[in-house]
UniProtKB/TrEMBL annotation:
Entry-linked PANTHER family: NITRIC OXIDE SYNTHASE-RELATED (PTHR19384)
Record carries keyword Flavoprotein: yes
Domain Flavodoxin-like: 138-301
Molecular function as annotated in GO: flavin adenine dinucleotide binding; FMN binding; oxidoreductase activity
InterPro entries assigned to the protein according to its UniProt record, in alphabetical order: Flavodoxin/NO_synth, Flavoprotein-like_sf
Protein name per UniProt: Flavodoxin-like domain-containing protein
One GO location term (cellular component): cytosol
Signal peptide: none
Keyword Nucleus: no
Length: 335
């Protein structure tokens, strides 16, 4: 037992409880057959636990030795171990780039008063891409759970890509390899994915969905800081339209949760919805699933045709615009 004041013991106990509770939440979040844990909640809980750990460490007597580790008492050692585990295991969902503990109590207690300690770089920032810089191609994103539907969503995404004219007209990407900033580079995004029974994102989409949830939180905070109110034009996904088709198991009570949740998060980041999010029921026969998808796909093909016509018309006008002005100039000078 340590001869520390009771208040310190309380803080140590509190820190250990908080860290263990945070690890329990991360474990629950990782459970493929459990419900989804919102990334914002995961961030709040882990940051609060690390703050408790920082407070507990700050209460410890000052060190004489430069080598801190030699003088750590067992409690401190345990707190640091748990905290490291929290930081490492939460990265699966929270990544590194979005967590800026620049002035967190935990960071200060471990790293001292530094100029800020942040994970990742500024290049990971999601920002508004001007419409004229967005790609004319459509982006098709697919994601799957390990299992039967895995092949299905990729097959349907490939079919959509082919129907839109192939690689010349669209980019096909797996959700596991993209972030929200990739969506911002396109005017039109089509997402074909599935969901697990409890409304979780598919395996391929877990990191992406967490990232989108954290970006939605950050976007909201930024707008509040700037006092823009709803400033849709300032939002990072403004100028990008999305349409989502999700394969679901209708026998599960929360089957539509992920598809609708993803739509909501992307809209809160400024995206517009080109079509209402549709669910394709895996309980139905294959032919019926194909039919549902085909209807969705044919609407997209029509929309793509229209946008191509509009773009061609714009290009034609731009090409003919300057020439008309030139001819006028010649006429004037000739006169």
């Amino acid at each position: 037992s340590h001869s520390l004041p009771a208040v310190n013991n309380d803080k140590i106990g509190q820190a250990i409880d908080s860290l263990q509770s945070a690890l329990h939440l991360i474990k629950a979040a990782s459970n493929q057959s459990g419900p989804w844990v919102d990334a914002r909640h995961l961030l709040d809980e882990t940051v609060a636990a690390l703050d408790d750990a920082g407070l507990a460490l700050q209460c410890q007597p000052a060190r004489k030795s430069v080598d801190m580790t030699k003088q750590l008492n067992p409690d401190e050692h345990y707190i640091r171990e748990l905290a490291d585990e929290v930081v490492n295991t939460r990265q699966r969902f929270l990544g590194g780039s979005l967590i800026h503990d620049t002035d967190g109590i935990w960071t200060k207690s471990v790293y001292g008063e530094c100029d800020g300690f942040s994970f990742g770089t500024e290049t990971d920032e999601l920002y508004r891409v001007p419409d004229e810089e967005k790609k004319e191609k459509a982006l098709i994103v697919y994601a799957s759970q390990n299992g039967t539907t895995g092949g299905t969503t990729k097959t349907f995404a490939k079919h959509l890509c082919k129907s839109l004219g192939g690689d010349t007209y669209c980019d096909l990407r797996n959700m596991s390899g993209i972030m929200a900033k990739d969506l911002a580079m396109y005017k039109r995004v089509y997402i074909v994915c599935n969901t697990s029974g409890l409304g979780r994102p598919p395996c391929d989409g877990e990191v992406f969905y967490s990232h989108v949830q954290l970006e939605a939180m950050r976007c909201q905070e930024n707008l509040e800081d700037l006092a823009i109110g709803d400033g849709d034009e300032e939002k990072p996904l403004a100028g990008t339209s999305v349409a989502i088709a999700v394969w679901v198991d209708s026998s599960s009570p929360d089957y539509a949760k992920f598809g609708l949740g993803l739509t909501e998060e992307l809209v809160s980041l400024g995206a517009s919805t080109a079509l209402k999010t549709i669910t394709v029921d895996e309980q139905k026969v294959k032919l019926e699933q194909k039919q549902t998808f085909k209807e969705w796909e044919s609407t997209i093909i029509e929309m793509e045709k229209e946008s191509t016509i509009i773009e061609m018309e714009k290009e034609r006008l731009m090409a003919s615009g300057p020439r008309r002005r030139t001819s006028k100039t010649i006429a004037t000078s000739a006169a």
